């Protein structure tokens, strides 16, 4: 057996892996950015924002898209538009970025944490009903990393208990579930366009919806009360009394970047999905390693992150996920532990215990803290010969660290 690179042996990737530079840069976008700059029309439903909203709605099949400042306020505004606030409870998955839960807290509502499914890592629908109380108003399923939440089961529960559903699609622009773009199944779909995302404009986000009234409210909420599409200074009907509105606008600079990226989204998603499946076959064959399950109902699975679990109960004495990650890194494969902890234990989570409730979390506690390793989407955009080397590195490391005995 070849010596591990971490122990001074040869590296699998002798030269750095040719991972995709992300976010992508298209020369034509630079020119358009300059045009926006020269136009002096930078904000307030400028032409580019208006077009992106139209094109994103068309791409996702939603009636309306409303761009906003980021993928946290999109969640917050979706809840406000659905009249969720103080005294209400909202069900969220135990593992997600903390914004999903904190947005609930911004509304003065209580996030109720429900465990994740061990295969898809998305909220486990079998554990939702036991978390429901008379105060429950909504469920926020997150389509996490490279899988989708089980929307069939979630929509059935929502219907049974008359709950709203906000899909957190921060990771999944380009993803289609049973032929529908994610975010169009529940009441509102919430997207993030932050720097690292599949569509990335530095900062940014959007809500999509098929409900005209919700769209109208979301437009007003994020544009300090202006009617959706109304330009600065343009006469429009005032917002209803009591609708407390915000300035969560974006600029045309972001919209220009996103419009060009959107043209490539389908092709990029197909490439990432094909490569993820290629890599999955290879990694799932290695003892002690498994890949996050693709949603069984995915038409096209979007990948923001490629997530791999190591069976920490089958590692040699003294070896944990930390050593596995260090060994893979030494071979030239940049896996990381990601956020490291379930949402309510992440270092930036500051919500006091009395302001949220844990209904179930055993699976998340084990998987997220002991098993989860992740690679960014850039790793899924390389030729198969490079993916082979990733698999080779995993095989080499697990060859040293895996133990037949439990
Ligand atoms: C699942 C999830 N939801 C929401 C967000 C919030 O998005 P933003 O960073 O644009 O506020 C993120 C950001 O990473 C996320 O991963």
Q: How would you describe the overall organization of this protein?
A:
- This protein has helices at 27-39, 47-60, 73-81, 99-106, 151-161, 212-222, 252-284, 321-331, 362-371, 384-401; strands spanning 64-68, 89-93, 110-114, 136-139, 164-168, 176-177, 180-181, 188-192, 205-209, 289-291, 298-300, 305-310, 357-358, 372-376.
- The chain has 406 residues and is of the alpha/beta class.
- The protein folds into two domains: 5-23 and 265-401, Alpha-Beta Complex (Aspartate Aminotransferase, domain 1); 27-259, Type I PLP-dependent aspartate aminotransferase-like (Major domain) (Aspartate Aminotransferase, domain 2, 3-Layer(aba) Sandwich).
- Strands 1-9-8-5-4-2-3-13 form an eight-stranded mixed sheet, sandwiched between helices.
- β6 (176-177) and β7 (180-181) form a beta hairpin.
- α7 (252-284) crosses α10 (384-401).
- The protein starts with 26 loop residues before the first helix and ends in a 5-residue tail after the last helix.
- Pyridoxal-5'-phosphate binds next to α4.
């Amino acid at each position: 057996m070849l010596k591990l690179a971490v122990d001074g042996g040869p590296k699998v990737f002798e030269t750095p892996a040719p991972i995709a530079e992300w976010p992508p840069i298209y020369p034509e976008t630079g020119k358009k950015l300059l045009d926006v700059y020269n136009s002096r029309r930078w904000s307030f439903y400028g032409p580019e924002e208006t077009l992106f909203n139209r094109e994103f709605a068309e791409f996702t099949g939603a009636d309306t898209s409303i761009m906003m400042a980021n993928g946290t306020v999109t969640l917050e505004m979706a809840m406000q538009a659905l009249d969720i606030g103080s005294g209400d409870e909202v069900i969220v998955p135990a593992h997600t970025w903390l914004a999903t839960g904190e947005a609930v807290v911004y509304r003065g509502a209580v996030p109720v944490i429900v465990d994740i499914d061990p295969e898809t890592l998305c909220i486990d629908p079998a554990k939702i009903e036991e978390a429901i109380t008379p105060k429950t108003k909504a469920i926020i399923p997150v389509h996490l990393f490279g899988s989708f939440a089980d929307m069939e089961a979630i929509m059935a529960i929502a219907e049974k208990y008359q709950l709203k559903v906000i899909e957190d699609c921060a990771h999944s622009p380009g993803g289609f579930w049973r032929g529908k773009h994610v975010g169009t199944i529940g009441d509102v779909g919430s997207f993030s366009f932050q720097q690292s995302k599949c569509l990335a404009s530095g900062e940014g986000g959007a809500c999509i919806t098929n409900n005209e009234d919700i769209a109208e409210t979301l437009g007003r909420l994020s544009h300090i009360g202006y009617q959706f599409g109304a330009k600065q200074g343009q006469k429009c009907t005032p917002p209803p009394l009591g609708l407390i509105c915000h300035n969560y606008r974006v600029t045309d600079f972001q919209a220009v970047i996103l419009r060009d990226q959107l043209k490539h989204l389908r092709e990029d998603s197909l490439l990432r999905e094909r490569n993820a499946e290629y890599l999955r076959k290879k990694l799932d064959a290695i003892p002690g390693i498994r890949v996050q399950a693709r949603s069984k109902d995915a038409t096209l699975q979007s990948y923001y992150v490629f997530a791999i679990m190591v069976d920490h109960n089958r590692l040699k004495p003294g070896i944990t996920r930390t050593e596995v990650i260090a060994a893979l890194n030494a071979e030239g494969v940049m896996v990381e532990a990601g956020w490291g902890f379930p949402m309510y234990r992440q270092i930036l989570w500051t919500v006091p215990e009395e302001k949220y409730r844990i209904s179930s979390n055993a699976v998340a506690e084990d998987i997220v803290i002991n098993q989860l390793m992740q690679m960014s989407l850039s790793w899924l955009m390389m030729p198969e010969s490079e993916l082979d080397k990733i698999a080779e590195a995993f095989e080499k490391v697990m060859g040293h660290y895996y133990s037949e005995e439990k």
